Fold these 2 entries.
Entry 1:
Amino acid sequence: MTAPLKIGCIGAGYFSQFHYDAWGRIEGAEPVASVDLDISRAQATGLTAYGDPGAMLKDVQPDIVDIITPPETHLAYIKQALDAKPKAIICQKPFCRDLDEARKAARMSEAAGIPVVVHENFRFQPWYRAIKAQIDTGAIGDVLQLTFRLRPGDGQGPDAYLDRQPYFQQMPRFLVHETAVHWIDTFRFLIGDPNAVFADLRKMNPDIAGEDAGFILFSYDGGARALFDGNRLLDHAAENTRCTMGEALIEGTKGTLDLKGDGSVHLRAFGTSNTQQILSSGAYQGFGGDCVYELQNHVVRALLDGSELENTADAYLPVIEQENAIYASAAAGTWVKCN
């Protein structure tokens, strides 16, 4: 019997709880160590705790290093992890501080022959997998328009985000860099890369540093368009507004797919009023349809059976390029071409 892959995690902050929970449920993986500069947080995971990544990497020699820390630490931790020669590295988003650092990380990964996978998990949510399957089978024909309305309802007042991720308040670039980046990646997963973007961004809550609302329009070859309509101060009709964080329509020449706030997906054929449920709402164990589990399991399965990895560092670079184009468009008030 093959021994399980050893998992060494760097970081034990708020969102890491979903990583640790998922690792404990993945067949073929064994979480063995946690690192945090505040070693008490690493100890709270129940794993062997370290206050220094170098010591963990030397002692444990993990097969997968999971980096669950802020962007300013990513490049240094990736380099340190690559030197330990694991089978793969997973790194949380936003990926590195900027495009230059992300490119360096991708080059280091390629030179070492060790994949670095960006933990961009929304494309792994079950509703987007179901929508992608419907698009690929031609159920709605040619996609002409995609719209997502972000409405988590957590951004009002001076206490916004303080109970969960207080650093959100201080991010100079917030809505796009931290949140909409999920849908930049998801849109390209569903319908490919845009040729240009146009953005109108604004700050609605005066108690935070960055933008928290805006419209982003994506243009595609052939005339299709996608719209990200985001406002963190507003909510949508869902018992858990953080399940999908909003609602989506994917409209094509033969029909429309409708994502509800409970995670269900419905198909309506063009020219009819009847709908068919493609995916029902579910009681998922983890965050956002258990997408953290699905991403981490995807990496484990790829290492064990040789299947292709999604969102390696090099493949993810266009997401950061598009993010930069969005901010440039908002500053200039004009369309900006994407590379």
Entry 2:
Amino acid sequence: MNNDQRLEFKGGMVVAFLPVCIFLFFCVLYFIVYKAFEMHALAMGAFVALLVSSIFVKRGYYEGFWDAVYEGAKEAVPVVVLLFTIGIFAELIKTTNISSGFVWLADTLGVRGSLFTGFTFFAVCVISSATGSSIGTIFTCFPIFYPAGVLLGSNPAALAAGIVCGGIFGDNLAPISDTTIISAATQEYTKKPGIADVGGCVASRLKYSLVAGIAALILFLIFGGGGTVGAGAGEILGQNMNPITLVMLIPVAIMLFVAVITRNIYKAITVGIIVGTIVGINFKLMTFDDVISVTDGAPSGFLTDGINGMMSTATLVLSVYGIMGVLNGAGILDKITDGILNSKLGKTARGAEIAMMLGISITTLVFGGVTSASMTTFGKVQNEIGKRVGLHPYRRANLLDGFANAIVLAVPFLSVFVFIGALLTKGYDFVEPLSITRISIYMFYCFTLFLVLLSSVITGWGRSFEGPKGDPVQGKQGMQEYIEMGRKEKLKG
């Protein structure tokens, strides 16, 4: 099959959606039915989807099918390399157990009731931003903050939602988050080669995340109390306190600073790993064996564990990009993009952004809140829509990541995050397990982030267009410059 030929399937173009449907089936099966939150299971589903779908291509297109998979997977290579790199730094921070420092801080400040709920949301936001892992942070912080908070008079549902929302905050903002990397890597420049840099994306989305985070914090402080104070909270806190771990915020802050200033995430991660290792060893938060060693014949330490921890996510990204290659080879992505741009929404930048909001929200909802998969899937479409109306890659990446982590993650029965929150409230004698509906109504950060981004789309706050050299140009001036550049290019042609 040559490059100009489209893949053809038995039964028509609609069959080209088969790999997506099969992959979606595995998302629902593992994350919602089995409640098994493992990315490598979804990666398996994606590869099975490709194997099954290849049977349905027309005669003479079988080789072309796998060529399309390879083409799609090749685009995932920069994302995979970056994921492995940030995995090392994330594992370094996790090894030093930074959460115990925030537990000590909460105990020292003597926060109770709604104050503890608000403090917990803030602490988990910082921890998830440092580790770049939403689900990992949620699983780590729940056994520490939830039982103690319930016994200190917090509203159990609000507290559980605060922990989940804190994890989502870091997923949305952290430069070492897989979703931050995917959102940047799927958005390409038109005026220069390359994809959006992570540092620039984080710097430009900071205002949205902070406004939404502060609003959510206020809501948690208002509605986070009202529980019954019980005995035993002090013991739980005492077992998980270590103020010295807060020094690990130093390498995190340096990493963030270098990422934003240099706009090069590799430099930032390298500096963060070096500084973090020095700080961790000097303050006896880890030993050299925690850096690299062999335990029972198996490699261990945060260097190897960081790679191993990202293996499943990297495999998932690679497989989903392969599916996108098939959709691209069949012309599906072009048809979806053309359909949106030829509609009323495609006539203006605001309309295109509304289409982006609806597209990533629906995709994330369909994928059960698995944001890495939904953003990898819809990111290609968002890239084409945004490029054709001149939106800067930063803006496209921010809307992609923001709306994926917004209100759709609070939908009961369809969000893996609400399921995880409800699951982790089980096993305590002093409080009844929570239902997913009780937790979902307190997912304040998801609500506030959606409202902040929606107002940004409607008012144009932060909207930027791609300038002549790829620089972001704001507002109407940017749109006029983009139109003028397009006119000059047409005259040259």
